[in-house]
Amino acid sequence: MERWHYLYSGLRITSELRVPEWQLFETSQPFGQTDVVIRVESHIPTGNQPVITAGLFSFHVPKVGRYVVKSGCEITVSPLPEADEREARLFLLGSAWGALCYQRGVLALHASVVQSGDYAVAFCGTSGAGKSSIAAWLTERGYRLVSDDLCRFAVIDGIPRAHPSTPRLKLWREALGIVTRNNVEYERDCFRFDKFQINVSEQITSAVSAPLRAIYLLEWGEVGLARLTGLAALRRFITAATYRGDLLEQMGQTAAHWNRCADLLRCTPVWVLSRPRDWAAMDAMMERLTTQWQNKSGNKLV
User: N or C: which end of the chain has fewer CB within 10 A?
Assistant: First the structure.
């Protein structure tokens, strides 16, 4: 069986399923030691109920297939015969990958990340908060996309870092007007009629993680920017950025997740960024934000 090799999110992955979304991270040679193996099986295990334990996460997606994630080092995909390949990869890159990160003790968060100069900044918020829309607005103005949707963060030698991920932006229909470049390819989301994926592979030019300069928690309101610190920052950050929080308790990972988030926030400033729902106000709000980046230097915004 043919296998593909990827260096993604700092992990060495060997896969029996080709993942075009990871093309940037593909390597030509197999690894001496693999961190994660992705297998494909034609046999569909019986039973549709999810199984969630510390080292096992198994779930079934109607008309798509079944996924089994084991011990942070193996994902088995059993697609149904009628399943669309893109749909099968959607759940591999989402719920299955997120569960594997929890099993490994890797901090994977729901965020959009762009690079400003030598540093990255992250935008976090609940679904519909506008993370991807802000990232799209910034990439249209020359900022480089690092990650959208599910992103790995890590503190390495005391420096917070964000790993690049799948080079795609996910935008609701009303936000598509932000992207004004010619020849942009839109791909409708498999399960949400009004959401689209935009390939921005030309934006992600490196598979290397970027130092993280600041985290912005998004909320609706009048244009404003306020610093958060301490336990208040941690609580709001976990609410805004945790991916599939329903898995944490059953995996026994709640306390560990809080600790990993606290480690990240000890060396990364957190801000609340509020803005009105009127897209006409985007320019003024983003001008205030980018001015802050230009006026500060180093790894921290104070």
Answer: N
